[in-house]
Amino acid sequence: MAAFTTTSAPQTLTHMAIVTLVSTDDSVLSARVLAASIDAVGGSEASTLDRVAIVTGAVSLGGVHALEQARWRVYQVPFIPNPFMQSNEAHALAHTRITRRRQWESACKLYVFDMAMYQQVLFIDVDSMVTGNLDHFLTTLEQQRQAEVNDTRGTVLAAAMHRKPRLDTNRWLFDTSVMVVRPSRALFRDITEHMMEFGGRSVNADEEVVHHGRSLASWRALGLGSLTHSHGK
């Protein structure tokens, strides 16, 4: 069962958090660098928001403590294997090639939809670095959230889209490296229960599921009509 560590749990429903995924000890240093970049240049608002690291059981106790020292709230989750990779292939490659290992772990990113203790989540990949002030962006998101308080068709997800030329030259998928999500545990349950129905032409489970999850009734109830995206390169 997903849960915060005792020292990390937020006390009340909070309007927004910055979230990343830390699936092994190898990513702990990257998460600390990401946190430092938010504090250094992200702006006053970004530096005061909750920062949450989605952490799998592969992260050691020492790794958890290092994350907490960098002011990450640790959200410990059961591992979700990538259903679009054959298990034998995944196990053989998970510890030999970083890219393949990240693909095997990519479904764990879907826990952003489970984080209903936050009204909005800004997800940033752990291997990213903030290089500019986020205050204007965060203010815009907060204004949008306030405008949608009484609107049942508020935005579920905002993300860029990018082309997957090696898989399908005419196909676009949501890029989940940076995205804004309105969490819903009902939607998270639907996503994980129906994951295998969403195609699988991409081995990145998070992108595949986020793209096709829009067909779920629970997603439409939250506001499919307000889905926001922009085409990227």
Descriptive labels:
Spore Coat Polysaccharide Biosynthesis Protein SpsA, Chain A, 8-stranded mixed β-sheet, disordered C terminus, alpha/beta, 233 residues, globular, 8 strands
How would you sum up this structure, described in words?
The chain has one domain: Spore Coat Polysaccharide Biosynthesis Protein SpsA, Chain A (Alpha-Beta Complex). It is 34% helix and 23% strand. By secondary structure, it is α/β, with parallel strands linked by helices. It is built from nine helices and eight strands. It has helices at 28-41, 44-48, 61-69, 87-93, 98-105, 135-147, 185-193, 205-212, 217-223, and strands at residues 3-4, 14-22, 50-55, 73-76, 118-124, 157-164, 168-181, 228-231. The N and C termini lie far apart (37 Å). It has an eight-stranded mixed sheet with strand order 1-4-3-2-5-7-6-8.
